[in-house]
Design goal:
The structure is a single chain. This protein has nine helices and 14 strands. 32% of the residues lie in helices and 22% in strands. Helix 3 packs parallel to helix 4 and helix 5 packs across helix 9. A seven-stranded mixed beta sheet has the order 3-4-2-1-5-6-7, with helices on both faces. The protein has a seven-stranded mixed beta sheet with strand order 9-8-11-10-12-13-14, sandwiched between helices. It is an alpha/beta fold.
């Protein structure tokens, strides 16, 4: 089993320019069921590089191809409309690779996809799973790859991997692979201040997946979500092997590091530094690597390999 994407995913690509075409072909060659491209002015044409139909709207692809997953590669100014179109068409899983989506647009998307309930929380049950933006995508090795994750560095296995950072994830994935350990699903949730799905939308899915035996999550400086994740793991799945990594141990306070959300604003008692998060997670019984290699080694040890 896996989460979010698998052999039943039928993927449309919104944004069939050079980058969209390049990665869609990689995913198709991997075995992912990429079924169509979407372009408002090219409906009815053939996507020559992939030999697939192009539809003017996502709704047409849902009707004609049974599409249930979208990979969004459109430029940032058009991402809001693309996501909302996919939602309106009834797509189940929407993976937004695009970088630089305006925060206001993401706020509109989030509040539309996940409306606020009277108690202030956001309704996510029975809503589309929105991954990203500014993320590498989702891969369930051997089943489907939706995004830009290099599929050659992993294979099917028992570890669920979720991360705010793409390249750090690749390194952990590769080192697990070298040790003979595969992945059930890897989810890159992105590092922007507003993202569709966070750690606590993904990790409970891993907890419910019978083929996911262990979990690695990769956080960054900024915010305190990693502590909330640790508390959830401690309360709900204390016997599951979990290893964390928090990027940014040497990052100075107030300096944005890479991702827009990776910035220590409070520090100290605010718990936004990597050291703060490591201390908090270890107090909850969760092993924390000091770098991606150490994180992989700790997971290998946890699995007794």
């Amino acid at each position: 089993m896996s989460i979010l994407v698998d052999e039943h995913s039928r993927v449309v690509v919104q944004g069939i320019g050079a980058q969209g075409t390049f990665h869609a072909k990689r995913n198709l060659d991997y075995g992912t069921h990429v079924v169509a491209g979407i372009h408002p002015k090219k409906g009815g044409q053939v996507w020559q590089e992939l030999g697939l139909p192009v539809y003017a709207t996502v709704a047409e692809a849902v009707v004609e191809q049974g599409a249930n997953t979208s990979m969004i590669m459109v430029p940032a100014p058009f991402t809001k409309d693309a996501v909302l179109e996919a939602v309106q068409a009834g797509i189940d899983t929407i993976v937004v690779i695009t970088e630089g989506v305006p925060a206001h647009d993401m706020a509109v998307i989030y509040n539309t996809v996940y409306p606020r309930e009277p108690n202030g929380t956001f309704l996510k049950d029975r809503r589309a799973a929105l991954i990203g933006p500014n993320c590498p995508g989702v891969i369930s090795p051997g089943k489907a790859n939706v995004g830009i994750i290099p599929a050659t560095i992993t294979k099917p296995g028992p570890v669920g991997l979720v991360s705010r950072s793409g390249t750090l994830t690749y390194q952990i994935m590769h080192e697990l692979h070298e040790a003979g350990i595969g992945i059930s699903t890897c989810v890159g949730i992105g590092g922007d201040p507003i993202i569709g799905s966070d750690f606590l939308d993904i990790i409970p899915r891993f907890a419910a997946d019978p083929e996911t035996e262990a979990i690695v999550f990769v956080g960054e400086i900024g915010g305190t979500e990693e502590q909330r994740v640790g508390e959830w793991i401690h309360a709900h799945i204390p016997d599951t092997p979990v290893v964390a990594y928090v990027a940014g141990f040497t990052a100075p306070a107030g300096k944005q590091m890479g991702h827009a959300g990776a910035i220590v604003r409070e520090g100290g008692a605010g718990g936004e530094t990597a050291a703060d998060k490591k201390t908090a997670l270890e107090a909850l019984g969760i092993a924390v690597g000091v770098d991606p290699s150490d994180t992989a080694r700790k997971m290998i040890t946890a699995l007794n390999r």
